[in-house]
Amino acid sequence: MSLASWFRWNEPPSRISQRNPTEMVVETLMMELNWQTKQAEKQQRERENEYRKIKTGVDYGWLVSYPKHSYDISPGERLQLEDMCTKIHPSYCGPVILRFRQLVAEYDPEVQEVSRLFRSALQEAVDKIKEEEDAKKLARQWNTKNKTSLSLTTFKSRSRISPFISDIKTISEDVERGTQPTRRVWSMPEFRNAK
């Protein structure tokens, strides 16, 4: 009996295989939202402490104890954000996080505004994904139209008929060759070169 069978080193991790990529995207994005919310709350507390210090002239910050995390997003809003996160393709997860961080750094929001910035970053990504899907759909339609039209033009070019190089004599050719050109009956005079 080998020692490897006792320790089960050869078994693949079953937890990773059970995870759906969409669930991982939702979890990652919501973790980022929670972290940014905590950071905004921390910055807001620091600003309030600075304001209190300036107002009173005395620092009592060492006496105050704050809860670790006091602001929570409403359950309805959280569900809406999670639903928007499910629309994000895994390849866009990183760019969405970067855009969200950029918006947070740019606007320096209050705690209540962080979820709105997150929603706008998600909406930008969803719109971009939709535009790319529409462009791909249009390109596919264009390619199928071009394939059919190219096949028709190659067929037409192979079966080209030239009316001037015809070996078949028709009755109308014989009639047209034997008659004189008709004179014009319109009001304009006829201009001909004299032979």
UniProtKB/TrEMBL annotation:
Q: Which InterPro entries match?
A: RD3 (IPR028092)
Q: One of this protein's Pfam families, by short name?
A: RD3
Superkingdom of this protein's organism? Eukaryota
A GO biological process of this protein is: retina development in camera-type eye
Tell me the leader sequence span: none
Q: What is this protein called?
A: RD3 protein
Organism lineage: Eukaryota, Metazoa, Chordata, Craniata, Vertebrata
> What is the gene called?
Rd3
